[in-house]
Amino acid sequence: MGQRIAIVGAGVAGLAAALRLTEAGEEVIVFEKSRGLSGRAATRSKEGCRYDFGANYFKVSCNEVAKLVFETLPTEGLTRIVGDILAFDRDGKISPADPERNAGARWNYRDGISTLGKRLAAKGGFATANEVRVTRLEWAGGCWQLEDESGRVLGDFDRVLLTPPAPQAADLLEASDFPSSVRMGVIAGLRRAEYWRQFSVVLSFPEAISLPENAYALINDDRDHDLAWVSLENRKADRVPAGQSLFVLQLSPRWSERHYEDAPASIVSFATAQLGALLGEDLPAPAWSDLQRWRYAHPRTAADVSALREGAPCGLFFAGDCLVGRGRVEEAILTGFAAASEMAILRI
Q1: Which of 156, 186, 249, 345 could lock onto 201 through a cystine, CB 3.0 to 4.6 A?
Q2: Which residue, among 53, 86, 55, has the nearest Cα to 327 in the 3D structure?
Q3: What is the domain range of residue 246?
Q4: According to the model, what pLDDT value does residue 140 have?
Q5: How far apart are CA 305 and CA 297, in angstroms?
Q6: Is 120 domain-assigned?
Q7: CA distances to 88, 273, 283, 306 from 277, in Å
């Protein structure tokens, strides 16, 4: 008989782990506080456009993820992004394409990067409970009980996998009841991971605007400009109506930290001016815009992985980008696979 496993967080790490565990015969339930799947691999629709406002693409550089993307999951709508990524410096000087930076394909889906999470869930067939915020765990008689914010018990589980950003996972464990011999070490290990805040700003223009060298994106490589990233969603298949241009901008983490509580209109106005200056163009007013405040955009330091392993003997596991110290879709998936494998090994 399989274990009953609770996974907190429906980002790609949690969903990848859920798929592997389900394939191994375990009973899995994924709890997610929001309405959707895929976490920061997020997609929205507006005014006939479809755009990614968190992770912009994913790469496939190892056989394990290649097998997942190209064999296990459906490939319908899987597309390669055409166009280079060019670097720019603190003064806005854009450099020619660097072959090393642009080595390897960048992948996405016609319906958005969130398709990856949806397909992981559909393939696994495991249960997902959306709009359920887990606020407390309790180690009771050899199993874990999970509670939501109303105090409702969500069930008893043999194992728990936590995949939220490390500060949120640490806050959850601070509110939980489990052996003190484990508690202090894993919470301290999670607190080692620090995250950048960051704004994603989406700008739609009612005319065709391109990037230099017909690039897909621009990235600030010296990390000293107020813009960190600019990409043109038109370079992704079937995303933007003809005759329009849709840009996704990510303001620098340092600028975002300083202006995190600013009004949306002020942030959008600043981002628009920065884009115009970078492209050397007098841009028209955007037809519409969108804004996302990412409180935990991506880690700047990693959690203490060895400390987190102290939770394994009582069935507490972790996955997500806090384990690698940077935000990469492929690496997040691999942490989910690793957690699933560790659970399987410890069960034997």
Answers
A1: 249
A2: 55
A3: 49-111+195-299
A4: 87
A5: 20
A6: no
A7: 12, 6, 9, 46
Would you call 301 helix, strand, or coil by DSSP? Answer: coil
For residues 164 and 332, the answer to whether their CB atoms sit within 8 Å is no
Q: Which of 39, 32, 36 is closest to 11 using CA atoms?
A: 39
Unique residue bearing structure tokens 């609770």: 6
Residues 291 and 149 in one domain: no
CA angle 58, 63, 64 (to 5 degrees): 80
d(CA 111, CA 333): 20
Place 2 in a pLDDT band, splitting at 50, 70 and 90.
confident
Q: How far is CA 228 from CA 1, 85, 198, 215, in A?
A: 50, 12, 10, 16
For the record, the structure tokens of 307 come out as 């400390």
Backbone angles phi, psi at 305, to 5 degrees: -65, -40
pLDDT at 348: 44
Enumerate residues 6+ apart whose C-beta is below 8 A from 101: 84, 85, 87
* CA separation for the pair 268, 272 (Å, rounded): 6
Once rounded to an integer, what is the mean pLDDT over residues 170-190? 96
- pTM metric for this prediction: 0.97
Partners of 292 in beta bridges: 200
